[in-house]
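Aggregate trends can hide what the representation actually does to any particular protein. In the encoding step, the backbone of a single protein was reduced to a row of integers, each denoting a local shape. The record that follows shows the chain in one-letter code together with its fold in token form.

***
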Amino acid sequence: MPDIDDVTRLALPIEEETDLDPVLDRIGDARCVLLGEASHGTHEYYAWRAALTRRLIVERGFSFVAVEGDWPDCWRVHRSVTGAPGADGDPYAALDAYRRWPTWMWANHETVAFCRWLRGHNAALPPERRAGFYGLDVYSLWDSLRAVMLHLAEHRPEYLATAREAYRCFEPYGDDPRAYARLVPEDCADEVLALLTRLRRPAGGGRAVDPAEQLNARQNAEVAAGAERYYRAMIGGGERSWNVRDTHMADTLDRLLEFHGPRSRAVVWAHNTHVGDARGTDMGRAGLVNIGRLARDRHGAAGTVLVGFAGGHGEVVAAPRWGAPMEVMRVPPPRSDSVEALLSGTGLHRALFVFSDELDARWLTATRTQRAIGVVYDPDHELGNYVPTRLGERYDVLCWFARTSALDPLHLEASRRGELETLPTGV
């Protein structure tokens, strides 16, 4: 079979961290490296993503990690790994404090191990050179609004009334902004915009405000504005809410790069559906954008490297329905028309593939489906968990694991909070 032979010829080993050398060569001077995952509950994706990130921070001086997570929760982790005064001394405590479903995405032992390493790495560096850990996502409306109010009360009390107006606007709708979106689709936009406009202004009156605190306050206001747009768009359906969310994440990435300076470099951790260029899937034809596409558009193909992950069969942590407790589920063998079936046919246990424009391989340009497991998953009815994909267009690098194992969560799920966590697709 020609495709099998072509795949095998291109395959590189991925057994030890030194096997990642070809990926570092491919990254070169790129400013943004986006590392995906084919599920939110697979050990191999998290472990190898962390291994590559460690090398990028140590050997290439990358400035921060930005993940598909909530800003306030990740800010607590950021303060821990950078040794901020008063922060948790062990990142375990900061990660174990995640309580919004699905907690296992970041409250897991794999992430703890990486963040403990990052804290130890940072401890030997001056504060301005310490690598951060940030959240990119648009959720956490209430936590972000509360954080803004606390910041303004201490540092910019003249704007506190504006923050209270934004908070009061959402207050009648409780913990479910979907109710706000259904009932009053325009009511809070002006209040949130006014708050954001004020926080974008530098502090006046000769007041000295820690730049990190200013970043935190402004980003929380950006989250509130993004969430307001997202929940309104979500009720309308179609592609607009997805685009609002991924554009917010891409904008947040750019704000972080700006904050860290013109020589800063970023690693992003998110699902393949966000990392892989949407133009290499059916998402592009549907009018959807994602972080991968936006990063390539904004920072150039040479300045952006997209790394996808794929797995054959094994186990995964997911939930059987929305808001349900996590379970360890089996992942069945892949469907016959998939990328995973092609890679399984090689007999390779693990493999690394580095793509380039010079490669002339039909399997990189042909359309095959690729498995995408979200936070909600039903192994017995998984036909909808596949994305039509042209690998060479979607990614620059692909990591393959024939057999996968479940992520190791820190704790059982707490009861679900009312705020909608993510799109019903679960990615």
